Amino acid sequence: MKIHEYQAKEILRKYGVTVPAGEMATTLDEADAAAKKLFSAGNAAVVVKAQIHAGGRGKGGGVKVVKTLEAAADASKAILGMQLITHQTGPEGQKVQRLLIEEGSAIDRELYLGLVLDRATAKVVFMASKSGGMEIEEVAAKDPEAIFKEYIDPAAGFQPYQARKLAFKLGLLPTQIAEAVKFMTGLYNAFMDTDSTLMEINPFITTKDGKLAALDCKINFDDNAMFRHKDLKELRDLAEEDPLEVEASKFALNYIKLDGSIACMVNGAGLAMATMDIIEYAGGKAANFLDVGGGANQEQIENAFGILLSDPNVKAIFINIFGGILRVDVLATAVVAAAKKLDVKLPIILRLEGTNVEEGRKILADSGLKFEVGTTMKEAADMAVAAAKG
Ligand code: GDP
Ligand code: MN
Questions:
Q1: Which positions of the chain have pLDDT values less than 70?
Q2: What is the pTM of this model?
């Protein structure tokens, strides 16, 4: 689960990590009031920041440093409601519905700090780099030596000597080391307590007067741990997620929207991946990934149809089922009932294998509905591609 920068900073604050003072705003009036407060507190500059679940906002025009209240109002007007396009949003961009109005910082150096779970070592790794403010993926590709890493023993936890090592490698001043240890330890504690899978401070800055601060913060939580974080769950912003994916998650359907024209309904994640591959191989494009699960019943199939049909790009539906726990006759009965109930007009192509496959095929043939049934995955995929084109 992703959260906004302002929410992430709120969490960091609780762990004693220095972040600039600021307030979230959803209207221009709120933004104006927040800017007024910051200027009257004596700040020379205020930063207006778009809050979306994607990075690269600065380059896309979603971060503006301003020196007057009028300029702050102009920046807020320009950013709030804009369709912000960054390398992480896709070409259609993401609509900005929240702003963070923050005190400006006098930046001396822009550095990078990150925590992530390293699957190879099964440890949390603390990363640091002098190349802050730019994509860490780019740094990793061009100059991997520029990323310093400390692997954290899960039993011992993050040790002060590890923080000191990173601080020295970053070239922090001797007077900043104690502060940096406190800062990094706070990040580690926040990361662990919230069951995060990723935490990035980019940039982690030193200011002209020698202080340290988290100028940006990105946190991703582990979805599988959210059941023990009711408070964090409330930070979810559904406006940032694909509406069809939100709908699918209500029915416990494992659905990811894609931009092709062939909708897929499959049982099992591996088969779903193979289905997308074979559609591509047959010259088509999948409209989604959808795993209906092993124990799908009629209601679940109906829900799945509903989701697939509400994507206007869909021109054909490819149902690829290997009947194991889910018997093929049960699936076929559910498909017929759901197709009748929802009055599905789009071509439905099926490839069925497994337990009770003959009974399943008979149910489809006797249904009075027009289904196309392929015997192999490739044959069915070819039929689906042809149907989507025709
Ligand atoms: P991102 O582009 O989505 O990663 O957004 P960031 O919050 O990282 O902001 C992008 C860039 O804006 C930073 O790398 C800084 O260079 C700049 N920036 C952000 N806040 C301030 C500030 O308070 N003062 C100054 N001078 N620059 C800032
Ligand atoms: Mn950033």
A1: none
A2: 0.84
